[in-house]
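Appendix B. One record, verbatim.
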Amino acid sequence: MKTIKILAAITAAALLASSPADACTNLIVGKKASVDGSVMCTYNCDGFGFASPLGFYAPGRHAPGEMISVRGGFGPGGAQPRYVAQADYTYGVVGLMNENQVTIVETTWDGRRELRNPEGYLDYFTLMDLALQRSTNAREAIAVIDQLVQEYGYSSTGENFVIADKDEAWIFEIIGKGQGRKGAVWVALRVPDDAICAYANSSRIRQFPQAKKIDKKLGFYVVEGECMYSADVISFAREMGYFDGKDADFSFREAYGPLDFSAIRYCEARVWSFFRHHTDPAVMDTYLPFLNGQTDVIDHLPLWITPDKPLSVRDLMNDMRDHYEGTALDMTADVSAGPWASPYRNQPVNFESSDGTAMFRERPIGCQQSGMTMVCQMRDWLPDEVGGVTYFNMDDATMVAYVPVYCSINRVPEPFRRENNSMNEFSFDSAFWMNNWVANMVYPRWSAMIGDLREAQAELEDYYAEDQKEVEKRVESLTHLERVNYLTQKTEAYTAKMMDRWDKLAKLLIVKHNDQTMRAMPTAGAQGPGMGRRPTPPAYAPAFIDAVKAQTGNRYVHPDAR
C-alpha cells in the first residue's frame, strides 16, 4: 500500500511560496580560482514582503511506494498539492547545501512566457529541494533534475541554477515547453576551475559544446567534463520558430531568453561589477556601451573570466555588498543618493519625471529587499561534516554579518527558525527583525551610520574566520555523531553571538545618532558622563549640496558669500 507524506524539506527558499524570488544574484568561484582550493557560490534571495529562514531536512530511509506532497506552484498558500514518488534514501539538507556538500542556488530570468507550463508539478524551488535530497555530487543533481522534470513536469519560467560540490561548479539554465508539454529544455556548463562566473536574472549561456550522440543511459547529451544538455534543446527551438540556423550556431540565450535593456542594465550590470572587482577595471569598462544598451557596439559580457588573483570567502562576502561603488554606475555619487550619500533607492526601478520622461534607477547586488543571503564554501580536503559551510544571515548582505552554518547540523539555531521569523510581528528572537531594525536606521542616514555597522560586521566576521581554524582541528579526532553535535553547538553559539552584537549595535545607533546628530561615545575606562560634549551634525554629501544650490539659486546662499 502506498503511503503519502508532506514534503518536509522546507528549505529557506521553499518558504517563498507567497512571494517568488525573481531578482537574485549568484557568484561562482572554481577551486583553482579560490585562495584555498574551495569551490564557492553565493545567493542573495531578493523580493519584497518575505523573510527567508534557514531550512532543514533530516536524512532518512523511506518505505517502498511512499509518496510525498509537493506545492503545485507559487501563490497564496501554493496551488493544490501534487504527489511525487519518494526516493529510497534522502540526504540531510541545511539551507541550500546537503550533507555531501552539494549546493544549489538560483536566479530567475523568465524568458519566453509562453513556455511556462502551469500543469507541471515542480516549480524551481521544489526542484532544488528534491535534487539536494537525492544527490551525492553536482553531476548527479543535474541528472536528477532532468529525470524529475521529464516525469512530473516543470511549472516555472526561465531559471538558472548554480549546482556545485566540493570538486566543481556547473551553471544550468532551464525553461519549460509550454502548457500541455511535460518536460523542459536545458543546458549545463562546467565552470572552469580557474574561473569566476556570475548570474543575476538573465540567461547567459549562448553557444556551447555539442556531442554527436545522446547518452542512452542518461537520456541527454554529454560532452564529458564540459557540458550536458537536454535531448531536444535545439530541435524544440526549431519547432517553435526560435531558431533556424546550423546546430553549431545555436545560442540558448537568443532562443529562450533574449535580452532587452532591462535585462542588461538591471541584471548583466551586476555580473559586470563582480568581474570588475577581480580583473583590470579598464578592460571591463570597455563593456559600458553594452550596459547602456548599445548592443550594436557589443552584445554580451564574457560568460566567465580568470580573476587577477584568487578569491577568499571574505572577498565574496564583500562582493555581495556591492552598489557599483567607484564605477560609472556608482549609486552614492549623485544627487539621487540624497544628503547622506546612500546607495539605496525607493521603489520602483522604473518611473517617470514630471514631464513624462521615462527614467530608471540602478539595481545593484546589495539591496534592501533580500530575504536572506548566503556564501557557500565546499572543501574536498576536509570531512564533509565540516567541509561544507554556508555563511548565512537573513536580510540584506550589506547590513548583516555572515554566520557560519555547517552542512551537517541536526537542528536550526532559534533566530533562523521559521516560527521565530513572522513577517507580521517584530521579535527580538528573530534574526530577520534584528537585522532589519538596524538596517532601517542606517538606510536613510548612510554616511553617518554605516561606519558603526561595518565595525560590528568586521568584528564578528573576523572572529568567525579565526575560530574556523580551531573548529577544523577539533573535528579531526571526533566520530561522525560527535562532529554533528559539536558543529551544531558551534553554529548555535555563532548565531547567538551575532544576535547579541546586533542588539548592542541597534542600541548604539539610536543613542549615538539621536535627533540626526552624531555624539562622541565614551572611551573604555573613561570617567564621568562621557557624552557631555555637544553633538555634531554629520556633513551633507557634496553632490546633494551642489544640487540644492543649482535648483534654489541664492535662496540658501549666505549673504556674506553673495
